[in-house]
Amino acid sequence: MPPARTDLNAFATDLAFRLPGIWNSEYHHHAAYKDQFPLAEQLWDLGHVDWVVSEFVLTHDAVLHGPGGKRLFVTDRPPHPHQFVVAPLEPDDAHLKPHHLVGVTEPNGIAVPNDPLRASTRIARRLLPRYERALQAVRRNAAEQPEPPHRPAPPQVAQVVTLTWYDDGALGAPYASVPEEARMALYAHGFQYHPHQAAFLLPAAYGEDGRALRIQAVARRLAEQGIGVNLRHAAPTTTAVLPPSRPAAVRSHHR
Predict the structure, then answer these.
(1) Is 158 helix (H, G, I), strand (E, B) or coil?
(2) SS3 per residue for 44-58
(3) Annotated domain spans of the chain
(4) How many CB atoms lie within 10 A of CB 116?
(5) Which of 42, 104, 148, 149 could make a disulfide contact with 137, Cβ separation 3.0–4.6 Å?
(6) Secondary element (H or E) of residue 134
(7) Residues 111-127: tens digit of each pLDDT
(8) Measured between alpha carbons, how far is 99 from 146 in angstroms, rounded to an integer?
């Protein structure tokens, strides 16, 4: 018979009493498997605790609420009946936004024994200091960059080169559509002028990778000149389909 597991609710309550500062415990019983996910999605952990909540059905958990908005997630550690796992939860602050957590190393959780005194000592020494450092980093990010770093819209350009992938695999642009200021850039990066097609074409001999590199180089060069670059597929050619002819009437022969 497997050993009885230590009661989580009693453990979390005693643990909260022994942690430094003022903490209180909030116990949750899971009526269904899905009930464990709302808190699991807030875990500030990419290690063992994240693995536990993603691999096991947990019938309950507890959250310890502490000073400065700190929150610790506590639950069983399967299959160790005399241990629990404790991990920080992400800050629950309306002023913080997802981009404030970018670049901040997860403080991650730890396994602790079912003795609240020993567990509180381990948490105070190992977990709370790195949790505090992570919180300070997030708050520093929020102070330095309150709003998300959205990319600005591209500048308006007066001239554009449109490179076209043609159905036969050719890549290029009609000569007349290329601004005069852009032609030397095309020549410099391997495009060739074909008079009989009246177009600049990039030889297929460069291969797909070679052509891709040359397109990127052309785009950078023309961007420096304030000329935009588009890449498109040729419009599909459509052939008119004639309606099916009506079957010829079969004459009946009378004797």
Answers:
(1) coil
(2) CCCCHHHHHHHHCCC
(3) 8-144, 159-233
(4) 21
(5) 104
(6) helix 128-144
(7) 999 999 999 999 999 99
(8) 9
CATH architecture of 159-233: 2-Layer Sandwich (3.30)
List strand residue ranges (DSSP E) for the chain, in order. 24-29, 60-65, 71-77, 80-88, 110-113, 159-165, 171-174, 192-194, 199-201, 227-233
Q: How far is CA 172 from the centre of its chain?
A: 35
- Contact yes or no for 216/192 (Cβ under 8 A): no
Beta bridge partners of 62: 27, 74
Measured between its terminal Cα atoms, the distance across the chain in Å is 102
Residue 191: name the closest of 157, 160, 161 by CA. Answer: 161
Contact, 88 vs 64, CB < 8 A?
A: no
Determine contact, residues 12/74, Cβ cutoff 8 Å: yes
pTM surpassing 0.90?
A: no
In the chain, the amino acid numbered 83 is: Q
Identify the band that residue 154 occupies on the pLDDT scale cut at 50, 70 and 90. Answer: confident
Give the pLDDT confidence of 100-113 residue by residue, as tens digits.
999 999 999 999 99
User: Residue 71 in contact with residue 65, Cβ under 8 Å?
Assistant: yes
3-state secondary structure of 13: helix
- Please state the length of the chain: 255
Residue with tokens 């000329």: 227
